[in-house]
Write a structure and sequence with these properties.
The complex is a heterodimer of chains A (194) and B (716).
Chain A (H helix, E strand, L loop, with lengths): L14 H12 L3 H23 L2 H18 L10 H20 L20 H19 L3 H12 L4 H8 L3 H22 L1
Helix pairs in contact in A: 1-2, 2-3, 2-4, 2-5, 2-6, 3-4, 4-7, 5-8, 6-8, 7-8
Chain B lengths: L2 H14 L4 H5 L4 H19 L5 H16 L22 E2 L1 H9 L13 H5 L13 E8 L2 E4 L5 E3 L5 E3 L3 E4 L4 E6 L4 E4 L4 E8 L7 E15 L8 E6 L2 E5 L2 E7 L5 E7 L1 E6 L2 E6 L2 E5 L9 E12 L3 E4 L2 E4 L5 E3 L7 E8 L5 E10 L6 E11 L3 E4 L2 E4 L5 E2 L8 E8 L5 E9 L6 E12 L3 E4 L2 E4 L5 E2 L8 E9 L2 E9 L6 E11 L2 E3 L2 E3 L6 E2 L8 E8 L5 E8 L7 E11 L2 E3 L2 E3 L6 E2 L8 E8 L5 E8 L6 E14 L3 E4 L4 E3 L5 E3 L6 E10 L4 E11 L22
Parallel strand pairs in B: 10-11, 21-23, 26-29, 27-29, 33-35, 39-41, 45-47, 51-53
Antiparallel strand pairs in B: 1-53, 2-5, 2-7, 3-4, 3-6, 6-9, 7-8, 8-10, 9-10, 10-13, 11-12, 12-15, 13-14, 14-17, 15-16, 17-18, 18-19, 18-22, 18-48, 19-20, 22-23, 24-25, 24-28, 24-42, 25-26, 28-29, 30-31, 30-34, 30-36, 31-32, 34-35, 36-37, 36-40, 37-38, 40-41, 42-43, 42-46, 43-44, 46-47, 48-49, ...
The chains are: A mainly alpha (194), B mainly beta (716).
Chain lengths: 194, 716
C-alpha cells in the first residue's frame, strides 16, 4: 500500500476547459451536462457512500445532486466559487437533509455494502475489493461526522483543501484541523477493525 | 491551530504533486508518518473502487431531465476545447523582466497555440462515433490515407470506414486522419504516420481498453475520462510506450525511432526498458532508441517572428538553442512567422524541438508588381520599366519572352535594388485565370487528375514530370477556363514550397470559396476591404501539413487595371516620392499617411499606368513598435493576490486592469496561465490570465538557474 502514488487526476483539467463545459451546460447542451456528470459523479458517489454506507442511497443521492445542479446551473457564476466546490456544497446540503429525514430512524449498517462493481470483475478480487472498502467505510463510520466529511471529501472525492472548505462552509484552517484529527481517529479505528 | 495541521497539509500537498510516499516519509516523525499512510490508504481505496452500475442509470435520468427541461440538441463536447484568447495590451514588462519572468516559469500549457495546425483544425468537427466498442471510425480524412487489408495490401481509406483491432492505418504527405472510438476518445494522425490498433474494447462503462502501436509520425490523443481503474489507453512505439487515463497528449516517432511524448492535459506514464516516468500537463519526455525515457521537463510553445536563425535562434524576442534533434519544417527565414516547441534544459535555457514555418510573407522590404517584360538577361530583367535583378534562386516560369505580361515578386536589397524571387507568366487571354498550387496527387486519369481534391484537366500540352505516382506532392500550374482547371505543368514540388495561388471569383465567405475551391483564413490573413461575392480576387497562401489551404492574402482584383505594385521600404524622398529606391508618383486620390517622415518604413500600393508611370494609391506607415513579435503562454503560481495586482512566484508584480482578461478566481497559490505578446520594442504585454487550478500551498521555490551551470546535453 505504501508504494502507491497519491495523484489527483482531476486537478489537471484546465479551468478554462471546465468553464467552457459549464457554459455549454448552462445553455442546456446535453453533451456538456453528460460530460459534467461523467467528470464528477464518481467523486460525489464516493462521498455519499462514505457518509451513508449504503450504495443504493448513495447512487440515488448522486443522481439528485446532479438534478439539483441542472435546476440551479443557470445561477452558477463561473467567477465565483469553483464548480466542484459548488457541486459538493449541493451534495453536503443534500446529506444534511438526508440526516434530518433519517433522524430517529436506524441507518442501514455499513456491513451491508453490496453489489459494488461490475459483474465481470474477477470474483476473488471483487471480494478483496469489497473487504477493503468495508474496512474503510466501517472505520470512517466510527469518526465524528465533521471529520468523516473532511476525510471523505479530501481523500475519497479528492477535493482540494479550499474546495473542501467551501463545500463545508468552513475555514481552511478548520478543515486542516479536522483532517488531522480525522486521520488520527481513522488510524485508531482501522487498527480496531483489523 | 496546531502547527502540525499545517505540516500534515504540506506533506499531503507533496504527495498530491506526485512525490513518492517513501520520499515524503523520509525523516518524518512516526506520528505524522502514520497519518500520511492512512491518507494514502484511503485514497488508494477510492482509486480502486469500481463504478457502480447504478450511476449509469442516474446519468440517463439526468439527461432525460435535461431534455425535458429545454433545450438545445447535444453537440460533440470535448473537455479539451480551449477558448483561444486574443491579445489586448498593456502591463508591459521590460525586456529583462520578461527574461526573468520566463526563466522561472514552471511549465507551459499551450494546447491551443501549437504549430501542429492539423490538430487544431479539426477539433470542433462533429463526427460520427464508432458503432460499437470494438471498432473505431475513420473521421476527418484529409489527403491520402490507406488501411491495411486482410491480404496485407494497403487500400485507400474512406471517411466513415470502420476499423477493428488488428488493422493498420497510414497517412501520406500533407494528409491526416482521425479515429473516433466508441467511448468518445479520439486519435489523430498527422502526415506520413502509421498506426495499428492492437487491442480495442472502448466501452463506456466498465474497463475501456484502447491499445495502439504507432510506428511513425505524429499523433494526438484525446482520451475520454474513464473511472474504471482497469481501463487502459496505451500507445506503444518502437522505443517505449505511454499509458494514460482521461488526458490529452501527443506522440512523435521519427524514422530514427526517436520518440517524444508531449502532454497537454492530465498525465501520462511513459515507459521503456522497465523505466517509467510520469509526464504531466506541460511536460515532455523523449526516448532515444535503446534508452530509458528522459526525466520529464516543462516546455514552451508559441508562435512568433524569427529574428535570427542558425545554431541559436531568436523567435518572438526569445533566444533558443538548437540541438541535433531539432526539427525545422518549411525552411523559415528571418522575418517569417513560425510555430515553435522548446524545452527548458537543466541550465534553464530553452532548446528548440521543432520549428514550423507558418507564414513566409514578412513585411521586410518585399515588393510585387505586374507588367510587361521589356528585356531579359541572365542577371537583370526590365519589367514595366523597372530593372529587376535575378539570380539562380529566383523561380521563373519557363518560356517567358519579351512582351509577355508577368507578375514579379521579390525583396528590396540593402542597395535598394529589386531582387526577384518569383516571376510568373500572366496569360494574355484575359478570360483565363492563372492558378498555381502545391498538392497531393489523389488519382491520375487519362484526362483528369485529382490533386488535393481538385479536379485538374490534363492535355497533351501539359508538361508532366516523368515518374509521378499517386501520393506525390506536386506543384501544379495552369489556367482556369470556363470553370475547368487546365494544367500547364505538373512537377514534383519541393517539400518546402507548399504555396498556392488562385485567381478567380469569390463564391462564398463562410467558408471562403473561390472558383469552387475552399480555403481557410486566420488572423494573419490580409484581406482587402470591400470584397463581395462575385468579385475577382487573387488568393495566395500555403498548404499546411494537413492539406488545409491557408490563405496568406486575398487581394481584390480590379479588372480594368490588372497591373499593380505593392512593396515596402524606407522613405528616401517625399517630393518626388522615392521609397526603397523606387520612384513613383501620387495624385489627389492617393491615400498618404499624414505621419510619414523621411526614413520611415512604409508600404506602397498602386498601379502601373499604361504609360508605365507608377501611380501610388496608398502610402501607409508601418508601425514597427506596435507590431507583435510573437505571443507566448506561461504557467506560474500566484504568490500574493490583491484586488488590483498579483505577485507571481518570482516576485514579479502584475497590475490588473481592464486590458487584462482574467478567467477564474485568483488566490494565493493559484496556478495560472499568463498569456501575452512580445512587442516590437522588446516589452512583454500580458493580455490574458487563466486560472488552471488551486494549489493548497505555495510550492517551494528553487534557486534560479545559474548562467554558468551549463548543460551540455541538449537532449536532456
Amino acid at each position: 500500500m505504501e508504494s502507491l502514488t497519491f495523484v489527483r487526476e482531476t486537478k489537471f483539467i484546465p479551468a478554462s476547459s471546465s468553464l467552457a463545459l459549464i457554459s455549454l451546460a448552462q445553455q442546456g447542451d446535453q453533451g456538456a451536462i453528460g460530460a459534467l456528470y461523467d467528470a464528477h459523479c464518481r467523486a460525489v458517489f464516493l462521498y455519499f457512500h462514505a457518509r451513508l454506507g449504503h450504495q443504493q442511497t448513495a447512487e440515488d443521492l448522486t443522481g439528485e445532486v446532479f438534478r439539483r445542479m441542472l435546476t440551479s446551473l443557470s445561477a452558477y457564476h463561473t467567477g465565483g466559487m469553483p464548480f466542484r466546490a459548488w457541486l459538493f456544497r449541493i451534495a453536503h446540503n443534500l446529506l444534511v437533509d438526508q440526516y434530518r429525514r433519517e433522524s430517529g430512524r436506524e441507518l442501514i449498517p455499513l456491513t451491508n455494502v453490496e453489489n459494488v462493481g461490475d459483474e465481470a470483475v474477477d470474483p476473488v478480487s471483487a471480494v478483496e475489493q469489497k473487504l477493503t472498502m468495508e474496512y474503510a467505510y466501517q472505520a470512517l463510520s466510527e469518526l465524528e461526522p465533521s471529520q468523516r466529511d473532511v476525510l471523505a471529501l479530501r481523500f475519497l472525492s479528492e477535493l482540494s483543501l479550499k474546495e473542501t472548505a467551501l463545500a463545508m462552509n468552513k475555514t481552511e484552517d478548520a478543515v486542516k484541523a479536522l483532517q488531522r484529527r480525522g486521520l488520527m481517529a481513522l488510524r485508531l479505528s482501522l487498527g480496531m477493525v483489523k | 491551530m496546531n502547527i502540525s495541521d499545517n505540516k500534515l497539509e504540506e506533506y499531503l500537498a507533496r504527495l498530491e504533486s506526485g512525490e513518492s510516499l517513501e520520499a515524503c516519509l523520509a525523516g518524518l516523525p512516526e506520528e505524522e508518518a502514520a497519518l500520511l499512510k492512512k491518507a494514502v490508504t484511503l485514497n488508494a481505496i477510492a482509486e480502486s473502487a469500481p463504478m457502480p452500475k447504478g450511476l449509469a442509470d442516474q446519468r440517463r435520468k439526468l439527461l432525460q431531465a435535461a431534455k425535458e427541461k429545454n433545450m438545445t440538441p447535444s453537440k460533440s463536447v470535448s473537455l479539451f476545447n480551449k477558448p483561444r484568447s486574443r491579445w489586448f495590451f498593456p502591463v508591459a514588462l521590460t525586456g529583462s523582466a520578461f527574461v526573468i519572468f520566463t526563466c522561472m516559469v514552471i511549465f507551459s500549457l499551450m494546447a491551443g497555440m501549437l504549430g501542429l495546425r492539423w490538430f487544431n483544425q479539426s477539433r470542433d468537427v462533429v463526427a460520427l462515433e464508432a458503432p460499437n466498442p470494438q471498432s473505431a471510425r475513420i473521421q476527418e480524412l484529409r489527403g491520402l490515407v490507406d488501411v491495411l487489408n486482410d491480404s496485407g495490401a494497403w487500400e485507400t481509406a474512406e471517411a466513415g470506414q470502420v476499423l477493428e483491432a488488428g488493422q493498420s492505418i497510414r497517412t501520406g504527405k500533407l494528409s491526416s486522419v482521425a479515429l473516433g472510438f466508441f467511448d468518445g476518445s479520439r486519435t489523430r494522425l498527422g502526415p506520413e504516420a502509421e498506426m495499428s490498433i492492437t487491442e480495442l474494447d472502448a466501452q463506456n462503462t466498465g474497463p475501456r481498453v484502447i491499445v495502439l502501436m504507432q510506428n511513425l509520425g505524429e499523433s494526438q490523443h484525446d482520451v475520454a475520462k474513464s473511472s474504471d481503474p482497469a481501463s487502459r489507453y496505451e500507445v506503444y512505439t518502437p522505443s517505449g510506450m505511454g499509458a494514460a487515463k482521461g488526458t490529452s497528449f501527443r506522440v512523435f516517432v521519427t524514422v530514427a525511432l526517436f520518440v517524444r511524448f508531449v502532454v497537454d492535459e492530465g498525465a501520462v506514464a511513459v515507459t521503456n526498458l522497465d523505466s517509467t516516468v510520469i509526464v504531466v500537463a506541460g511536460q515532455t519526455t523523449i526516448i532515444v532508441a535503446g534508452h530509458t525515457p528522459t526525466h520529464p521537463i516543462f516546455r514552451i510553445e508559441g508562435e512568433g517572428v524569427v529574428e535570427q536563425t542558425g545554431s541559436v535562434w531568436h523567435i518572438a524576442g526569445r533566444t533558443f538553442r538548437t540541438g541535433s534533434n531539432t526539427s525545422i519544417v518549411g525552411n523559415p527565414q528571418v522575418g517569417d512567422v513560425v510555430a515553435f516547441q522548446a524545452r527548458m534544459v537543466r541550465d534553464g535555457s530553452p532548446i528548440l524541438d521543432r520549428v514550423v514555418l507558418l507564414e513566409d510573407d514578412a513585411t521586410e522590404s518585399r515588393f510585387s508588381f505586374s507588367g510587361t517584360v521589356d528585356s531579359v538577361t541572365d542577371t537583370e530583367w526590365t519589367i514595366a520599366g523597372k530593372a529587376v535583378q535575378v539570380d539562380d534562386k529566383a523561380g521563373i516560369d519557363a518560356g517567358i519572352a519579351v512582351g509577355d505580361i508577368v507578375e514579379v515578386k521579390g525583396r528590396i536589397t540593402d542597395d535598394d535594388e529589386l531582387l526577384a524571387t518569383d516571376i510568373r507568366l500572366i496569360e494574355t487571354n484575359e478570360d483565363d485565370l492563372p492558378f498555381n498550387f502545391v498538392g497531393v496527387i489523389n488519382t491520375m486519369g487519362a484526362d483528369e487528375w485529382i490533386i488535393s481534391g481538385t479536379t485538374i484537366v490534363v492535355t497533351e500540352n501539359t508538361n508532366i514530370e516523368a515518374g509521378l505516382v499517386a501520393g506525390d506532392v506536386v506543384q501544379v500550374r495552369g489556367r482556369i477556363r470556363d470553370g475547368d482547371w487546365l494544367a500547364k505543368s505538373i512537377v514534383l514540388a519541393d517539400d518546402d514550397d507548399r504555396k498556392f495561388a488562385i485567381t478567380g471569383t469569390v463564391d462564398n465567405f463562410d467558408p471562403w470559396t473561390v472558383d469552387g475551391i475552399e480555403f481557410e483564413t486566420d488572423d494573419r490573413t490580409r484581406i482587402d476591404d470591400d470584397i463581395e461575392v462575385g468579385d475577382r480576387v487573387k488568393v495566395e497562401g500555403r498548404i499546411l501539413e494537413d492539406g488545409t489551404w491557408m490563405a496568406g492574402s486575398i487581394e481584390l482584383l480590379e479588372d480594368q487595371e490588372p497591373r499593380k505594385f505593392n512593396f515596402t521600404g524606407l522613405v528616401g524622398s517625399m517630393n518626388p516620392w522615392e521609397v526603397g529606391g523606387v520612384s513613383f508618383t501620387t495624385d489627389e486620390s492617393t491615400s498618404i499617411d499624414s505621419l510619414i517622415v523621411m526614413g520611415d518604413e512604409v508600404r506602397v500600393k498602386g498601379v502601373i499606368q499604361p504609360d508605365g508611370v507608377w501611380l501610388a494609391k496608398s502610402i501607409e506607415r508601418l508601425e514597427d513598435d506596435e507590431e507583435d513579435l510573437g505571443c507566448l503562454d506561461f504557467s506560474t503560481v500566484v504568490r500574493e493576490a490583491g484586488v488590483n495586482q498579483i505577485v507571481l512566484q518570482d516576485w514579479q508584480v502584475v497590475q490588473l486592469n481592464n486590458n487584462i482578461e482574467v478567467e477564474g478566481q485568483i488566490n494565493v497559490a493559484t496556478v495560472i496561465v499568463v498569456s501575452g505578446c512580445t512587442q516590437g520594442n522588446g516589452s512583454f504585454t500580458i493580455t490574458h490570465i487563466i486560472v488552471i487550478y488551486q494549489l493548497d500551498l505555495l510550492p517551494v521555490i528553487n534557486k534560479p538557474p545559474s548562467q554558468n551551470d551549463n548543460d551540455s546535453d541538449d537532449d536532456d
